[in-house]
Design goal:
Length: 483
Amino acid sequence: MTSEAQLASLLRGEIANMLAGGFFLFICFIAFSIAVIRPQKSARLLVWLGIWSGMYGAQELLKLRPVVESLPVSLQAARETLLVSFNYLIIVAGAFVFLEMTLGTLHRLVQLHLVADVAVAIAAISLFVVSGSQNSLLVYNQLLVVILLVAIVLTVSIPSLSRRFFVVTRHRVLTIGSLIFTGLALWVNVAPLLHISVANICNSVGFAIFLLSIGYTGVEIMVADERRLLLLDDELAIARQLQFSILPERTPEIAGLEITAVYKPMSAVAGDFYEFLVADERHVGFLVADVSGHGVPAALIASMIKVAGQAANGCTSDPAQVLRSVGSILNKNVRGQLVSAAYLWIDMAARTAAYSAAGHPPLMRWRRSDRTFTRIESNGLPFGMNAVSEYPVCNFPLVAGDRFLLYTDGVTEPENQVGQQFGESRLEQLIRENQSRSVSEISELLPAEIRKWQPSNVAQQDDITLILVDVLESVKSGSHVLH
């Protein structure tokens, strides 16, 4: 027989296994492609599924006689090492797949199983490298495969267990695929005992059905996650609208003051809050608060401050009483989170101001008359500490040219690429260097400087809220607000 005829004979005998190996590599490619197109947490299941399928497909191809015959002697050792490695690592990839699909007690059992899988694989591959023994630990590997398969099949087959221990609520496809695979695997192992010949391709067919059922489940999980994310985005958009609706629509018009406010949430909703408590056209209070943490929990607490601030309308001229009133409501409801706050009262009739705070960054005052910069700290304890606190009040006269800055720590705490914070000193320097600019100009300049301070590839690190107030030379009013 000529060499061409021998090769053709080999190919005819191995065509089924060749197709099987190619099919599993194709599944690997598809799984990776979907995971790349839809990069999200649930895509990890498809990544591990791709690795699992790819190992199995490569193993099938490396066993083909045409491949063995065509490889040079120098690569035969590498082929044997790959076959042994795949033999023991396939179960590791499978365990990772089921880690992504399981919950609770079953998830923890799969984690323990994975540790055993890795230990056996490392030991077996090491023994092969040292002694050349390929099957020294194969019985333990096969035992682990049986244990994992039995646990998964039993769980998906019993509705009460599958609802508790799997991340998807509907398991029909996975159950059918698991049962077909188990049935074919049992038949392949039992048939020889009954002297019945079974084609080797049966193993591959059963495993292919099993992998496809898992892949279907993985895609189902991804689709469900995307639906949840879309629903969450819609809800966050509504929450953002509601949160902005509780903030002041505009700055108050107070004779002799120019006022501007900036509010830049880090995410869809924020834990910062500000409010103007206006008594009349000559008297106004400024309340700024910052809830620890971010996102929806912090935003819910921030919305409580609106109600708490309204409860303090009868005592707006007394900063300590305003803070006590707000604290009495928040301390009952913040549930372990902390809230800092600051309150500045300005009386333009008497040209005086009063300030107090609850664990908040200092009030900054630039006095143009003598070119001095003062950090006014008058702090009690933050809200949420479940402790009685006094809130000392700092009283001081107003002078034409005074500029006040109330802010949250999102202004001073952003870090640059070496971990250095923007800081109060840099904030002071910026106010000094731009003393001739209006408060509306400063309110645009300051967030831009903070953005420049941070690395370009880093998103805003915290909610930013600030209120700027200028005491004017003459009696006029200004109204600016930035969102």
